[in-house]
TrEMBL record:
UniProt name for this protein: Proton-coupled zinc antiporter SLC30A9, mitochondrial
InterPro entries hit by this protein: Cation_efflux, Cation_efflux_TM, Cation_efflux_TMD_sf, DNA-bd_dom_put_sf, SLC30A9, XPA_sf
Organism lineage: Eukaryota, Metazoa, Ecdysozoa, Arthropoda, Hexapoda
Gene name of the encoded protein: LOC105366714
Keywords: Antiport, Endoplasmic reticulum, Ion transport, Membrane, Mitochondrion, Nucleus, Transcription, Transcription regulation, Transmembrane, Transmembrane helix, Transport, Zinc, Zinc transport
Protein species of origin: Ceratosolen solmsi marchali
Reaction catalysed by this enzyme: Zn(2+)(in) + 2 H(+)(out) = Zn(2+)(out) + 2 H(+)(in)
Domain Cation efflux protein transmembrane intervals: 289-498
Bilayer-crossing regions: 355-378, 390-415, 476-499
Endoplasmic reticulum is among the record's keywords: yes
PANTHER family: HUEL-CATION TRANSPORTER, PROTON-COUPLED ZINC ANTIPORTER SLC30A9, MITOCHONDRIAL
Transport among keywords: yes
BP-aspect Gene Ontology terms: intracellular zinc ion homeostasis; zinc ion transport
């Protein structure tokens, strides 16, 4: 502990003679030095009044001066009863040897806050030890004030609190002591009634669902205790739960109940606007339904023409129309399924069903259309048939060209509209597979128009040359065309199912909006995945600004009242309770800020269906 030179002498308050004053004056000059931030001193510092009267009888005058010298500044040395000056270097060396201190002098401007640390050093001088023991005995007797003839002792000590034992959190341990439970789980898992829960303590927590108010939760330990109180034991409760499960499963297995639940579920959750825009009666659904009707009609007419003419090219076109009809039925099912809302088995919904159905359609075209067409063409080359009249075949192909062309125009108009909404070119929209169902219809109808043209040319060459091999070659060409279309459909849909990122331009816009928030210092590991149906799943790691978050929390509190509450704290247990309370509130505020940021992003970018923001 450091004392300034101008008040140190007042602190001693001693009635001493001139020789002693000189030595204490030297002590006064030596102590007020500037040291490092840690100053080490002896544990006991005693200042003795009337030192000569205490020790005159016991030690004599020569020893008295020696004792005063050692308790003081050590600037004087006694030799044969005479006082002599000690060299300054020897004095510093003596201080270092006795106390073990390393003094580092600093400028007054660079001096920071000083801390004090006790250094227990026992003196080897018997006189100093005797004086110390006498002072300790006097302090224990409680004599604070005496006459001028008695000894007055002032003892400087540092008040110390016993260190509190730190409690380490075992992160590997499992515990349900502080878990919450919702009323629904309390009813289903512990078979409690709502009236049983009314007497239990409860609290409000943020809802995990969007646009929902806070939910009421109970402490799990209280719910378990209440269940044991009502049911008596764990065994009885377990038997009742098993019984309820059997009854519930038997109830759900009834066909009528399942149908009723599905119908009610669709009525409650299916959005009418989304069903109108993206369902079977939306833009994509209308294109697919139109293609189904036209391709089914073409299949019937081509089948009749093949039966009449026996042409290999006509057979390929018949198989082509049949494959298109079957595949577009699969597409219609995929569109219908993709607009259903998420459930417990599929929490992210069925949006990928469009890609799955398109993939199945591509595989069907490749296997059925390509395989049969190539097989029939090879068979026609190896075993040519006699040439018959192709009149009705030409009529059917002409009608197919008109109908397939009409379906192709419908698909092109739908893709142009979607590309305009996405602000992309026609080619980019098709290659990226933003609307897989319409893409399949487009490619199938395009292949149909080209296939009809190829079949007509090959049949014409066969009629003109009377060589049936031209007709068989036409079947091979149509089969190769179907294989190319199927490969393109499979490739685009596999890329979408694996997980295709949204355009970098759109991702940068979302990132800029997120980084501009005052609570966020940086974002990392950003991902934007196209889920289909123009929906996006966005994920990012956030580096929150802890100071801004804490400032936002403190803005809602009365700091003066908090200061008074802090002043009333008496021990570390009360301090711990105070910090835990506000720490939990700050964590709740952090969750609220994440909800606010997610809502802001979804409002500005409606295509974001799922927004996963994680804290670093």
């Amino acid at each position: 502990m450091l004392y300034r030179s101008y008040n140190f002498f007042n602190f001693i308050r001693c009635n001493i003679h001139s020789c002693q004053q000189e030595q204490f004056y030297l002590l006064r000059i030596a102590l007020p030095k500037r040291h490092t931030t840690t100053f080490i001193k002896q544990q006991f510092v005693y200042v003795i009044s009337n030192a000569s009267k205490i020790h005159h009888n016991k030690y004599g005058s020569r020893q008295l001066y020696t004792a005063i010298k050692r308790l003081a500044s050590n600037d004087l040395k006694s030799k044969n009863g005479k006082l002599e000056k000690v060299d300054q270097n020897k004095k510093d060396k003596t201080l270092n040897d006795e106390t073990g201190q390393t003094i580092v002098e600093l400028n007054e401007e660079k001096l920071g806050k000083l801390k004090e640390r006790l250094l227990n050093i026992e003196s080897t001088d018997p006189i100093v030890n005797n004086i110390k023991n006498s002072c300790i005995k006097l302090s224990r007797k409680g004599k604070t004030k005496t006459d001028e003839k008695n000894v007055s002792v002032e003892e400087l000590t540092v008040k110390k609190f016993p260190p509190r034992k730190k409690i380490r959190v075992d992160l590997s341990a499992s515990s349900l002591e502080r878990n919450f439970i919702t009323p629904a789980r309390a009813t289903s898992d512990f078979l409690l009634k709502q009236s049983d829960l009314e007497s239990l303590p409860k609290t409000k927590r943020r809802s995990p669902y969007e646009f929902e108010p806070p939910i009421t939760v109970y402490w799990r330990k209280d719910v378990e205790a209440k269940a044991l109180e009502i049911w008596g034991s764990q065994e009885i409760l377990y038997k009742e739960i098993c019984k309820k499960d059997l009854e519930r499963k038997a109830y759900q297995q009834t066909v009528f109940t399942v149908k009723k639940r599905l119908r009610d579920y669709r009525r409650e959750l299916v959005s009418k606007s989304r069903e109108r825009d993206e369902g079977l009666f939306g833009s994509s659904g209308k294109v697919v339904l139109t293609a189904i009707i036209i391709n089914a009609s073409n299949f019937l007419f081509k089948f009749c023409a093949w039966c009449y003419t026996g042409s290999h090219s006509m057979f390929s076109e018949c198989i082509h129309s049949a494959a298109d009809t079957f595949n577009q039925l699969i597409l219609a099912y995929g569109i219908y399924k993709s607009v259903q809302n998420p459930d417990s088995d599929h929490p992210y919904g069925y949006t990928n069903m469009k890609y799955v159905s398109s993939l199945i359609s591509g595989v069907g075209i490749f296997c059925v259309g390509t395989g049969l067409s190539i097989y029939h063409g090879i068979h026609g080359i190896l075993y040519p048939n006699s040439v018959e009249s192709f009149f009705w075949g030409y009529c059917i192909l002409g009608g197919s060209l008109v109908s397939e062309g009409a379906t192709l125009l419908v698909a092109i108009n739908s893709i142009k509209k979607g590309a305009k909404e996405k602000r992309k070119s026609f080619r980019e929209y098709v290659l990226n597979g933003h609307d897989p169902s319409v893409n399949v219809v487009l490619m199938e109808d395009f292949a149909s128009v080209i296939g009809v043209s190829i079949a007509s040319c090959c049949m014409g060459l066969t009629s003109y040359t009377s060589n049936p091999k031209y007709d068989a070659v036409g079947s091979l060409l149509v089969g190769g065309l179907l294989g190319a279309v199927a490969s393109f459909i499979i490739y685009t849909n596999v890329a979408a199912l694996v997980g295709q990122s949204i355009p970098q331009e759109n991702l940068n816009k979302i990132n800029d909006e997120l980084e501009s928030d005052i609570m966020i210092r940086a974002i990392h590991d950003v991902k934007g995945i196209d889920m289909g149906n123009s929906l996006v799943r966005y994920k990012a790691e956030l580096d929150f600004d802890g100071r801004e978050l804490t400032r936002s929390y403190l803005d809602k509190l009365d700091l003066n009242a908090m200061l008074e509450e802090i002043k009333k704290l008496q021990d570390v247990d009360e301090l711990e309770s105070f910090l835990l309370k506000h720490g939990e509130n700050i964590v709740d505020l952090l969750g609220g800020q994440i909800d606010r940021i997610e809502l802001k992003l979804k409002k500005k970018y409606p295509e974001i269906r799922h927004c996963d923001l994680e804290i670093l």
